[in-house]
Amino acid sequence: MKGRFFSEGIFREHFRQLKIVGIIGVVLYTLFGVFSSVGMNISETRVTDIDYNGSFNTVYAEKIDSIYLCTVQLLIPLIFVPLLMLVAFHFLTKRNSSDFYHALPVKREAAYSGILAAVFAWAFIITVLPLIVMWAVCLPLKAVDFAFVEALKAMLNTLVSCLFIMGVTALGINISGTLFTNIISSGIVLVLPRFIIVMCWLISCATVANSVMDYHVIRLMLYGNPITKLVYILGSYNANYFTRYFTSGLLPGAVEGLAYMSAGCLFFKLRKSESASMSSINKGVQSIIRHVLALVFSTIASVFLLERVWYGYSDELEIFMAVLFYVLAIVVYFLYELVTTRKWRSVAKSARQLPFFVGMTVAIFVIMSAISINGNNYRMNAENAEYIKVIGISGFWSDEYFLDADDFPVEIKDTELKNRIAETYNRDADGMNPNFSVGSVMVAVKENGVTRKRYVFLNEECMESLLGEIYSAAGIDISEKLPEIKGGDARYRFYLYWNLEEPCALTVEDMRRLYGSLRTEVLESENPAGFFFEVRDQKVCMLGLVTYDGYGELEMPISIKMPKTFGLLQEIINEHNETGSFAGMYEYVFDRTVYGAMVNGRIYFGSDEYNESKYYSASFDTDEDGESLRQIYDILKKYEPDGDVSGKNVIIESTSWYYGEYRASFGVYNLSDDDMSELWSIFEKNYD
């Protein structure tokens, strides 16, 4: 059993001791893989797609992809690895077994590495063997697609997660001496660093106006380690994030796990047999844990106190919350000692260190105050700045305007635009900007050798100019972002969804015609960079373009500010629409006294004065709703339903009528000022 860095004897013995937990994990995951694969095949789930000609084809069967595998395998590092670690190091919690292992003629680091190797071996088997079985089961099944690349990614992500959790639990176990404190200390090692990061984020956002700490916190979540990355991505409900950041965080996660293992090895070598069944290996470690936990709560209290002292908030809530969390900090300080040692005498002794805890709390408050004062007193000076770089635009703008993370940072070169960015930020910092601006932009400003990152909320005019600068600096060609699609090209497919009730079902050819018109109108505009930005507020539907493999999705608004494309949309709807308009429905329903019909619809107010959507749903056979609808129809029937979308007092209506052969109506009306005001009053009265 002798060895300097690794003991084969310890490895074999602990591999044998861990067989019950390991075999249970293998059996459970193997059965899950077999039953899930067979179940998918039995259900014969098919994914269909629409080709260019509008016919439905089966593209592939049910796919076992990366997000499915990683979600299922998440329980391996979170449940089975901690169980394996607790069983493997259980001898450290019993005095007799601890004496036995301390007496073995083997180096401490060799025994430690042998134990960890046994745990990782079982984690590897639990992860890999079920995947092999699942592949073997899926091989003859035509309805299930088992992707090797996805399986390898999931396996790598799971194994690195296991390595990370092994390091966390190794450190937690080796700084404590009972099963209860093993679990508590491991949880502290796992959660506390992330909790402190989030707390610093909240503190920064609370104390420094327009702080960009949320940007850095998200990067830590995505690139920090596989566990936090996976939890963040699953919580975002966005599979694209999962695919994009799948292998990110593996190296940092492995490095952090190995760092925890190294620290655990140090404590394993330092601990003595007498520390078995003790709360921690020594009083110093116990004191550190107690102080860190209490300081978390006292720091939160200091945030509320900071807001009250420096910002002069008169709300008594800040004082109440500050007192509450200071009290909780003291409670946690003593409660941890009582729960882990179960001795009132130890609690009394820990009171001697309260002055140190109070001093640390005061020091943290002073540091936070300095950060707050320095951060909030800062004002941009565009003339003295070496540069102003845009390092990010909120996801909404990026998705809609052909921008992604690879296009940043972009240095702003236009002097006037730099001054406007600085003026906008300074007004906001002075409390003079109500923040009703439309664009959230993250900038980095270097002044006097110091780089500061801040959010700036820009108005529409400034945002349009900024987009042009970014497009120019990043070399973005709009014509390449909007590919020319010729007839018969099956690499792309379209979809359309409405802000209004869908007036009719458009064919693939209809949507191709709309895309061609939209592309031409965008490229012919004076400012293609800001075109979609300008039209976004008054869009009535979104035209989606997706590549055949499902990637490269692009959503483009069709707006009343796009007269050519919207005019084509009106023509296409009229080709499909039997009813034609509200006025046509009015004539049929009220003149023929049809009762019991249900109308569901929306009217869009497209004028400058009434720029918002109003909704209504009413039945013709009720007196109140019937009267209101009759008033609306009496107004609309005066006008032609194919009005000019760029004209005055634009009303766009869309209704689904679930009765008989008449399914929907659609119309664009140009109302007089009096009728517009009357229609608006009807909606304010009945449908708010």
Number of helices: 26
Span from first to last CA? 80 Å
Outline type: globular
How many strand elements?
14
The average pLDDT value, as a whole number, equals 79
- What is the radius of gyration computed over CA atoms, rounded to a whole number of angstroms? 33 Å
Spatial strand order of the main sheet: 5-4-6-7
Q: Which percent range fits the helix content?
A: 55-70%
Structural class: alpha+beta
Which stretches of 5+ consecutive residues score pLDDT under 50? 45-60, 237-245
The major pleated sheet works out as: 4 strands, antiparallel
Beta-strand residue percentage: 5-15%
Verbal overview:
Helices cover 59% and strands 15% of the residues. The chain has helices spanning 8-17, 19-43, 66-73, 75-88, 95-103, 108-138, 148-174, 179-207, 213-223, 226-236, 239-244, 250-270, 283-311, 316-341, 344-350, 354-376, 395-400, 415-429, 460-474, 478-481, 508-524, 528-535, 563-576, 582-591, 623-636, 673-686, and strands spanning 46-50, 56-64, 144-146, 387-393, 410-411, 439-447, 450-458, 492-498, 539-547, 554-559, 598-606, 611-619, 650-659, 662-670. It has a four-stranded antiparallel beta sheet with strand order 5-4-6-7. A four-stranded antiparallel beta sheet has the order 12-11-13-14. Strands 1-2-3 form a three-stranded mixed beta sheet. Helix 4 (75-88) runs parallel beside helix 7 (148-174). It starts with 7 loop residues before the first helix and ends with a helix.
